[in-house]
Specification:
Elements (H helix, E strand, L loop, with lengths): L11 E8 L5 H16 L4 E7 L8 E8 L2 H8 L2 H10 L8 E8 L2 E3 L3 H6 L6 E3 L1
Antiparallel strand pairs: 1-3, 1-4, 2-3, 4-5, 4-6
């Protein structure tokens, strides 16, 4: 049986909604390219979907980033590369962004619910930046 502390615990998704300040789209896309390069070098990274705003009144870009384990997601979240990149992003934001983790552990699916946070309380299941 897999446990939350082993790399075989299953894939995880990090879903982020990032509000981009008006007029900063090009700078944001440039920043996003640097994030993509850093993710490619990150252990356990498997894929990333980018969903741009669908209408003019929506500011949030949505990202679905997949890792092969919660440990690799944790490593990315605490990496120097990620922290540097997210400091660079701050001037591009139009308010805080939210990220949540979805994981499949021991055959069950957990999301950013109390159950998930209780089982993975050190996994930063829900982050406000």
């Amino acid at each position: 049986m897999d446990s939350p502390t082993t790399p075989s615990s299953g894939s995880v998704k990090l879903v982020s909604a990032i509000p981009v300040r008006e007029g900063m789209r090009d700078q944001f896309l440039e920043w996003n390219g640097r994030v993509a390069d850093a993710l490619l070098a990150s252990p356990g990274f498997t894929s990333r979907e980018v969903i741009p705003p669908q209408t003019e009144d929506i500011k949030e870009w949505v990202f679905i980033t997949r890792f092969d384990s919660i440990e690799h997601l944790r490593a990315w979240r605490t990496s120097d590369d990620r922290n540097r990149l997210f400091e660079e992003m701050k001037p591009l934001l139009d308010g805080p962004f939210t990220a949540g983790c979805i994981a499949r552990l021991s055959g069950r699916i957990f999301s950013t619910t109390k159950d998930f946070r209780r089982r993975l309380d050190d996994a930063d299941a829900l982050f406000q930046h």
